């Protein structure tokens, strides 16, 4: 049942991305082009997502525990470290240049477009590169 719920959540998310037009990189890039062909529709998509998220949080955290887990697993770190800021910057720059974020690119893979395939390939390569660099720095940090 857990996997079915995860699948349905992915289908709903992907459908929302496609219906909202966020799988189209030109629509996203036009949002950032405030001096040219500015398209404010991304604001409405984000606003709708915030409303759904707020309602979802109220419903979920109104329960004593999650459905498939014994307790809620929430992040405890509150500090802004260089890795968080750098990762956020890379994400934002990549989103602005390519017009894709991972959430929009995965549903767009179904189009078979080469730019989507290249973006997802670069995304996967970036994940493995970050893990590799993290593993390189970990032994040094533990030895110190």
TrEMBL record:
<dbReference type="InterPro" id="IPR046513">
    <property type="entry name" value="DUF6691"/>
</dbReference>
<keyword id="KW-1133">Transmembrane helix</keyword>
<feature type="transmembrane region" description="Helical">
    <location>
        <begin position="41"/>
        <end position="61"/>
    </location>
</feature>
<keyword id="KW-0812">Transmembrane</keyword>
<protein>
    <submittedName>
        <fullName>Transporter</fullName>
    </submittedName>
</protein>
<keyword id="KW-0472">Membrane</keyword>
<dbReference type="Pfam" id="PF20398">
    <property type="entry name" value="DUF6691"/>
</dbReference>
<feature type="transmembrane region" description="Helical">
    <location>
        <begin position="82"/>
        <end position="110"/>
    </location>
</feature>
<feature type="transmembrane region" description="Helical">
    <location>
        <begin position="116"/>
        <end position="133"/>
    </location>
</feature>
